[in-house]
Amino acid sequence: MKTQQLDHPNIYNMTNHRRLRRIPLLLGACFACMSFSALAGPPFMTDDPEPVEYQHHELYIASQQTLTRDGRAGTLPHIEYNYGPAPDLHLHIIVPYVFNSPTGEATQRGLGDIELGVKYRFVQETETTPMVGTFPILLTNTGDRDKGLGSGGSQLFLPIWIQKKWGEWQSYGGGGYWISHSPDIKNHWFAGWQIQKEISEHLTLGAEIFHSTEQVAGQGASTGFNVGGYYNIDEHNHLLFSAGRGLQNADLTNKFSSYLAYQLTW
Fold it and tell me: Which CATH number fits domain 14-257: 3.30.1780.10, 3.40.1440.10, 2.40.160.40, 1.10.10.60?
């Protein structure tokens, strides 16, 4: 759980400026924590349709951060857990410990908005057709909005994801619609696409590009990219990493972002 990387819009007056600057920074952390499965998704923001295998588990201990011109926000750490209770289905939760450091203000730390999800694959991949699935995500309202640690309202993401593999290459992407009950976040679309190559038995590298329509009034749309991959230490232990930045409205949304995680699978 692979989000969103935001900042306050310039049109707000100084009274609203201090109230809103913290909340969008936090949303960058929430969005970058969007969840993804073992060999796809983390460390990227774009997701995939492949669920955890039946009766298998994934546990991530991860940290993400996003820098804008007005400060830095992220998770340190967040805990992600995925479990496959049935074929083609997995259950998902992220519990984030978040930080929010607006420039010139005290850093706030605490529980963020807990994320819940269910991934379901309804089309299997074949030699000629891609895998297709969905992964509805619910961001709960557990973080403290007044401290910039929560969005102040629940959010629901309804996506469709597709994936295809050719030898050592694999690509996946798609997108969906965020329905927001936060007072500061608009309903908006998100889409992304990723491609990766298996370099060796241990190392896979990839890159993605993603786009979001306007999330905060007056801010405008945002586009960004990440490069990264994962390193398989052995069958059960993995390291995941990525870094990137915005290409559109970068100062406001994403001057630099990074993700680092240890993953245990069994």
Answer: 2.40.160.40
Helix or strand or coil: residue 135? coil
> Which two structure tokens, joined as six digits, stand for 153?
């309202």
Q: Which two tokens stand for residue 166?
A: 């050719």
The per-residue pLDDT for range 62-88, each reduced to its tens digit, is 999 999 988 999 999 999 999 999 999
Q: State how beta strands 155-166 and 137-139 pair.
A: antiparallel
Express each pLDDT in 137-181 by its tens digit.
999 999 999 888 999 999 999 999 999 999 999 999 999 999 999
Task: Decide if 133 contacts 117 (C-beta within 8 A).
Answer: no
d(CA 241, CA 261): 7
For residue 257, what are the β-bridge partners? Answer: 66, 244
In this structure, the chain runs to a length of 266
What is d(CA 131, CA 144) in angstroms, rounded to the nearest whole number?
A: 38
Instruction: Answer whether 259's CB lies under 8 Å from 32's CB.
Output: yes
Assess contact for 2 and 194: CB atoms under 8 A.
no
| Strand 115-123 relative to strand 169-180, pairing | unpaired
pLDDT at 253: 86
Tens digit of each residue's pLDDT (9 = 90 or more) over 84-108: 999 999 999 999 999 999 988 999 9
Rounded to an integer, what distance in angstroms lies between the CA atom of residue 126 and that of residue 129? 5
For residue 195, CA distances in Å to 40, 60, 73, 140, 245 come to 10, 22, 27, 31, 17
Prediction pTM value: 0.85
